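Hi R.,

As promised on Friday, here is the backbone we talked about, encoded as structure tokens. Could you run it through your design pipeline when you get a chance and send me back a sequence?
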């Protein structure tokens, strides 16, 4: 049976209870016999068809559970970790079923307007885009701030800053403030050190005034960290942190209604951080969550 005939029979099955005579009209129109339809109606599903039905159900479940913001690659990771599936699922099969189900992940838009100033020679970019150098938790921390909005029409702004452990992309701490100040940065790092304990990571940031302030540098000296800074006009020097914010804003904040109050915003941010630390699985972590990946290192 070809796919076209199967689609016709499925249409008849759906419309017959609703429209009197639909079965006869459709069969006559496409030139198929009533016997062929009855044979299809009472057939037994093959093991492949049973797998397809189960996979469609699982794909829809995971796609909706992650707010329709994951693509075929991530869906395959969740399917690979699903204990109810006792058969191998290829990426090609996931893509095909997503097409059949008309599922499409919303992608991040690439930004092309930034100018890279490679001609400026700086000596303090110690990390130097070596984003795979962390072999254990708390060896390299990244930090940055991003703008978030709340209010009935998104009329209020706030700065969300965070500390990201490069190993496993685990967000250690966050702070929400009206503006990006040195006090906000000091507070978010004090929370990170309080959570991590006695550690002395390399800390990589941009060259913003909050990161070059005396209070912030005094805190870094106190904890005996190695400082590293991005070159001016080169956001890729802090790419993992930039990507974390992009995915957080697109795949989490962007998939929820605009928070009306600051309290709602804080609650949404905390739920999102929990999602990316404890629930989200990525191929870069071999299908593990950020917390699982850190646990494997221990």
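Update: got your reply. Pasting your designed sequence below so it's all in one thread:
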């Amino acid at each position: 049976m070809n796919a076209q005939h199967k689609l016709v029979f499925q249409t008849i099955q759906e419309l017959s209870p609703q429209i009197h005579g639909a079965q006869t009209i459709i069969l006559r129109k496409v030139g198929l016999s009533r016997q062929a339809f009855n044979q299809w109606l009472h057939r037994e599903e093959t093991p492949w068809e049973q797998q397809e039905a189960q996979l469609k159900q699982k794909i829809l479940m995971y796609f909706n559970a992650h707010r329709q913001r994951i693509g075929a690659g991530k869906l395959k990771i969740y399917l690979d970790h699903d204990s109810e599936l006792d058969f191998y699922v290829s990426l090609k099969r996931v893509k095909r079923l997503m097409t059949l189900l008309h599922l499409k992940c919303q992608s991040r838009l690439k930004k092309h307007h930034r100018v890279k100033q490679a001609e400026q020679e700086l000596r303090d970019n110690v990390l130097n885009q070596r984003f795979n150098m962390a072999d254990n938790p708390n060896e390299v921390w990244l930090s940055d701030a991003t703008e978030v909005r709340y209010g009935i029409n998104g009329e209020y702004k706030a700065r969300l800053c965070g500390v990201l452990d490069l190993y496993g992309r685990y967000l250690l701490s966050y702070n929400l403030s009206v503006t990006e100040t040195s006090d906000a940065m000091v507070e978010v790092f004090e929370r990170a050190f309080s959570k991590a304990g006695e550690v002395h990571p390399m800390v990589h940031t941009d060259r913003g005034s909050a990161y070059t302030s005396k209070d912030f540098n005094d805190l870094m000296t106190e904890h005996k960290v190695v400082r590293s800074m991005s070159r001016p006009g080169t956001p890729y020097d802090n790419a993992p942190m930039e990507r974390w914010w992009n995915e957080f804003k697109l795949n989490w904040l962007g998939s929820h209604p605009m928070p009306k109050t600051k309290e709602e915003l804080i609650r949404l941010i905390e739920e999102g951080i929990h999602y990316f630390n404890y629930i989200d699985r990525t191929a870069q972590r071999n299908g593990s969550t950020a917390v699982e990946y850190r646990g494997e290192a221990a």
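One thing I noticed while checking it: The chain has three domains: 3-41, 47-100, 140-297.

Thanks again,
M.
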